[in-house]
Each structure stands twice: as C-alpha cells, then as structure tokens.
Write a structure and sequence with these properties.
Bound molecules: glycine
CATH class of the largest domain: Alpha Beta
Largest sheet: 8 strands, mixed
CATH architecture of the largest domain: 3-Layer(aba) Sandwich
Radius of gyration: 20 Å
Helix content: 40-55%
Strand content: 15-25%
Number of helices: 14
Length: 378
C-alpha cells in the first residue's frame, strides 16, 4: 500500500414523500448543519465559499489515483484558492477502505501540522467520502470536511447523510461514526468519465429511493431508455431530496432511515459472498437484484400485489445482468445476513415495501422464507 503525498501542488409517514413538489430551480438543499449544492462547481460558489468560510484554513484534498489522474489538475487550476492545498492520494478500491489506511492518513495530517481550524476536501467516490469523513471526524476530535462526490453512487447516496466509516476485513462499514460534511458539491460533470456499469450501479440507489418513498421518482427513472446519457441534475436532485428528507428526521437510523436499506440485506450478502469468492460484482448490481428478491419477500408477506412485484422484477431485469449463483451458495449467503447491522436479538430484520413508494422496516423473515426467495429469484 502506498500513499502518495504531493506537497504544495500545488413519526413521519412514508406517504408524505408523495406530497413533495420538486423545485427544480433549487440549487441547494439544507439539512442539519449540512448544505448540498447542485450544479457545476464553478457556478455553485465553491471558490467564494472556500474563501469566506475557510479562508484561514489549511486545505487537504483526499482523493484516489483514478480520480487524481482524471480531475485533480482541473480542480487545482480552476480554483486558485486550492493552489496551496496538500493532496493525499490513495490507491482506488474498497480494499483500501481500512483502518490501516486511515492511520497512514492521520500520520500525514500530523506531518502537515493540520489543526482543528483546517479543512479536508474528500474528492472521489464512495470509498473516499466514507473514509475521508471518518478520518476527518476522528482527527483531533473532529475536523471540518467537504465532499465532492465524483460517482453517481456517492452523489445520490454515500456522500449525503453523514455515514462515514471503514470496513473490517470482509465486513463492510463495521467501524464508523455519523458525521456530516459541512458542504456537499454535486457536479454532474464528473459523471462524464464513468463507465456505463458504474452509472448503472449508482442508478440502483435512485431506483431504491423511488421504491421506498416516491412512485413519481420511480416512474421518472424507469421511463429512461438509456441510463448513461439520460441521467441529469434534476433526477439527481429528486433522488437526493428523498434521502435528505429521511436523514434529517432520523440521522442515527433508529427508525425511518432503515428504509434506505431496502434491497441491501440480500444485496450486501451477495456482494460479500461474491467478493470472498474472488468474483466481485458492483454494489449497485448486487443491490438491484437484492431489491428483486426483497420485493418477492414483500409479496410473500402479502405486502404488495403480484402486479407490483412483476413490474419491479421486469424493470430491473431489463437493465441489470442476472447474477449467477449456485443453490449450494444460498446457505452461506444467509449466514452472511446474520452480521447485518440492523439485526436484533439475532433475527434478520428486513426493510420491505408495501407498495411503490412505501416501505416498512423491522420485518422479521425466517431463514426458510429467505431460502425460498433465493431459489425463486436466482
Ligand atoms: N446508504 C444508506 C444510508 O445512508 O442510510
């Protein structure tokens, strides 16, 4: 593992979501102490904000090699306020979302004599915003940080809502804290260098927001014939607005925020199982099929109709490649679900849906029911 340092480079009801009228002209959303800005960085007042709110702060940009290569020069040269920022660049990928990497970054921050008044800018995908937020929140009991998410997944999900953390061996996000970025800048320009698969992976979280909270959003999304060329800032804003309305009432996930886990109990287990068997798949692909399976569970529990279940299955099947699995895998996949953070009293707790745009959390499901669904869907 190598870190490269470049010095001086230079009781809300779910239905309430249906009542939202999206204000497309909105350029920012606020919740708790966080502001989410939409649109090009230059037009979002990024430079002015850095000067006004963080003028006397040293600035550290945390990124990974992929984003660094594609965008760092552009960022530094477009915003003179960053010309003296220190850049910490880590290798890309989930493997580096670890406490060991945090330790190395904390050592670098000490070397740079970073103090409480200074600022970390997390510039990258979900790994960077999760890890960077965690690093900032613990260093000297908390530095301020800004997120500039560069993937669709981190724009619509990871960078918003204050979940920060790292993995512990095979277990995702086991070590972490809730801590919000002071500002999140969502600039769709960064999506231009993503592959179709990466876009589709982020698109899953948008579909999830529709399924749990807004039929209108779901309909807008499934109407797209091509995800890569048709995702725009208005759809991203709709999606983030749904997440924002959930996390602002239940930041610590004691209630309604659990709805955001729809598709993830089975999805995470599949993702973890595939990774452990050296056949990694994208998070959003695993969660998309996790949503198909959890919709099927919702049908089994009598929460949704056959027609709704069919609609979800057909729409996802038409966009996401089927995940190949052998029935002999299912026992191990169910075992992995027992490590889910939402479980209580050693029972697997699911978030299921009770319609398109409506979710119910803390649903007990037996191993037999999960097994039946896995056999049916995969
Ligand atoms: N990604 C789910 C959440 O932020 O709660």
């Amino acid at each position: 593992m190598e870190i490269f340092y470049a010095r001086e480079t230079d009781i809300f009801q779910f239905q309430f979501m249906e009542l939202i009228t999206f204000e497309y002209m909105l350029e920012s959303l606020r919740y708790n102490n966080s502001t989410i800005h939409f649109g090009s960085l230059a037009d979002s007042g990024f430079e002015e904000l850095l000067e006004k709110e963080y003028g006397s702060s040293k600035k550290i940009i945390l990124t990974d090699e992929t984003v660094g290569e594609l965008w760092i020069e552009d960022l530094i040269t477009s915003f003179p306020v960053l010309s003296h920022a220190e850049i910490i660049q880590i290798p890309p990928g989930e493997d580096f979302k670890s406490i060991e990497v945090c330790t190395q970054i904390w050592e670098a921050l000490s070397e740079y004599q970073i103090g409480r008044n200074d600022l970390i800018i997390n510039f990258g995908g979900g790994v960077i915003t999760d890890l960077g937020g965690f690093v900032a929140s613990l260093f000297k009991r908390g530095l301020r940080f800004i997120n500039i998410p560069t993937t669709l997944l981190s724009q619509v999900d990871a960078s918003v809502g204050g979940k920060t953390g790292v993995d512990l061996g095979p277990y995702k996000n086991q070590i972490g804290v809730f801590s919000d970025a002071e500002h999140v800048f969502i600039d769709p320009r960064f999506l231009g260098t993503l592959s179709d698969d990466q876009l589709l992976s982020g698109f899953t979280e948008m579909l999830k927001h529709g399924l749990i909270a807004s039929e209108e959003h779901w309909n807008n999304l499934i109407a797209l014939s091509k995800v890569d060329s048709q995702i725009d800032i208005e759809l991203i804003l709709q999606s983030v607005n749904i997440k924002k309305q959930i996390v602002e009432v239940d930041h610590k996930e004691t209630g309604i925020r659990k709805n955001l886990n729809f598709g993830h109990t089975i999805g995470h287990a599949i993702e973890g199982y595939k990774l452990a068997n050296d056949k990694p798949i994208l998070h959003g692909f695993a969660v998309a099929w996790g949503m198909v399976a959890e919709a099927e569970l919702s049908l089994m529990k009598g929460l949704i109709t056959r027609d709704i279940n069919e609609e979800i299955k057909n729409k996802i099947e038409s966009k996401y490649p089927k995940i190949s699995m052998d029935p002999s895998d299912f026992k191990d996949i169910i075992k992995l679900m027992y490590n889910d953070k939402k479980n209580r009293e050693n029972k697997i707790q699911f978030t299921l849906i009770s319609g398109i745009g409506m979710a119910v959390y803390d649903q007990n499901v037996t191993d037999k029911e999960i097994l039946d669904v896995l056999k049916k869907v995969f």
